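Sat 14:20. Reprocessing the chain from the morning session after the first attempt stalled halfway. Input below, unchanged.
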Amino acid sequence: MLVTGWTGCSPAAYSVYKTPVTAGCLQVPQTVFDKGPLQFVRPLGWYYDIAVSKQPDGSYLALLLQCTHQENQLNVSGDGYTCSLHGSRFDKNGGVLHGPAEQPLQRYKTTVESNNLIIHLT
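Finished this time. Tokens:
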């Protein structure tokens, strides 16, 4: 199921692919990336989205959009992510650009199986 529109407080609109967590993993059809290399996935029952970007080498980068400073939801901003609570900024790879956050965004391991992207949450 593909849900259109941003469900948080970011002014930018984008699609969020919602999917259940099964055995600690998310399964996302690779066809979701036909719309563009950056897509957003929300595990059912979670508050935070996961930004998933297809890299030039064909691998995927999955980042939890939760600020590492005080766990606020992040907004998409230009070429990265920002926290509206205290102003932390992260680059598109999850690295800290501006504090008060000191730790990079949480990354999840990804694999591809049978034309599906698998995001390993554990």
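The first strand starts at residue 2 and ends at 3.
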